[in-house]
C-alpha cells in the first residue's frame, strides 16, 4: 500500500505543470516599483504633507481664539466688617472669551503666502527626488546589463581559448609547435576562467544592489533592453528641446531653466526669503487685540449687592518700543538668509548648466562612436577567425591567436558598454533637462523598450 501511494505521489508531481516563480522586470517596471517603494521618496512626500499642514496652521491665525476659563479660590476663613463681607470662604470664577489679534503690517498674510510657497517648493523637491531616484535606478539597471554582457563575453572567451588550447595541444603532439605554445594557451585559459568567475560574482552583486534599490527581496531577474540598430543623438535632443530653433546646447539650458525642479524650487526659496524679510520687518508695527468676555463669579457666603456676572469687550493696543535689539537682529538674519538664497540659486544654476553640458557631450560622443565600435567588433571577429585558421595550418603562432582574441574581447566589451551607456545617456540628458519624470509618467519610458519574451 505504501508503495502504491508513493507511486501515485510521484506521478502527480510529474504530471503537474512546472510553474515559474521568477518574474522578469523591464526598466519601466523597475521605475514604477522604485517610485512606489523608495523610502527617500516617501520622506519627500512627508515633507510635502508637513508643508500642507503648515498652511492650515497659517490659516488658523485668521480665526479668532475661543476659550473657556475657570478658577476656584479657597480662603482660610471668612472675614467681614460692619460694612459687609471682606473675604468669603471660597470663590468660584469662570467664563468664556473670544480674542483676535491683528498686526498693522499684515504679517499674517505674509505668513500664509510663505506657507503656500512652501507647498509648491515641496512639490518640486518631491519631483527632484523622484527624478534623482529614477536616474539611480537606471544606472544600477544598466550596470547589471553590463555585467551580464561581460559574463557572456567572458564565457565566449573561455570557449575560444579552450578550442585554441586543444589546437595547441594537437600541434604539440604532432611536433608542429613547441610546448611553450601550449603553456601560453593554458595560462590564457586559466586567466579567462578567472575573469568569468569574477564576472559571475559581479552579476550577483549588482543584481542585489538593484533589488535593494527598488524594494525587491531575494533574487531579481531583469529583461534585456531592445538596443537600437542605429544611435541618433540629434533626434533625441530635438525631442527634448521640442525642435527649438537655437543651438542645441542653448535650447537644453533654456528647457532646464523652465522645467528643472531644482531651479523652480530655488526660485521659490528666493521668493520665500524675500517675504521673510518683510515678515520680520512687520515686528516694528503695533498690534491690535479685540477681546470679548463673559465672566461670572460666585462667593460663599455671598456679598451684599454682589454682581455675579458681566459681559464686556476690550480693545488692546500694543506697540513695543524697545526689546533689547531682538527685532533688529531678526531682520538682519532674514536679510542674510536672502543673500544666501541668492548665492545658492546662482551657484546651483551654474552647476546645472555644467551638468547639462556634460550630459549633452556624453550623449553625442557615445552616439557617434557606436557605429565605429560595431565595425571594430566585425573586423576583430574576422581577424580572430583568420588567425585561428592560420594557427591550425601552422601559418601563425600562439601569440598571434592570443593577441587576436584579446583584440576581439576588448572590442566586444567596448561596444557593449557603449550601447548601454547610450541608453543611460538618454535618461541622464532628460533628467538634466527636467523632463525625465514627465516622460516616465506619460509612458515614453525615456525612449527605452524592453524585449517581450
Quick rundown:
The chain contains 11 helices and 8 strands.
Keywords:
453 residues; Outer membrane efflux proteins (OEP); four-stranded antiparallel sheet; two-stranded parallel sheet; 8 strands
Overall tally of domains: 1
Give me the count of strands: 8
The CATH superfamily is Outer membrane efflux proteins (OEP)
**H-E order:** HEHHEEEEHHEHHHEEHHH
- CATH topology, which one? Outer membrane efflux proteins (OEP)
| Largest sheet data | 4 strands, antiparallel
**Rg of Cα set:** 39 Å
Q: Name the helicity range.
A: 55-70%
User: Regarding CATH, which class?
Assistant: Mainly Alpha
The low-pLDDT segments are 5-21, 444-453
**Overall shape:** elongated
Beta-strand share of residues = 5-15%
> What is the number of helices?
11
Class from helix and strand fractions: alpha+beta
Gap between N and C termini = 45 Å
Strand order of the largest sheet: 2-5-7-8
CATH architecture: Up-down Bundle
Mean pLDDT: 86
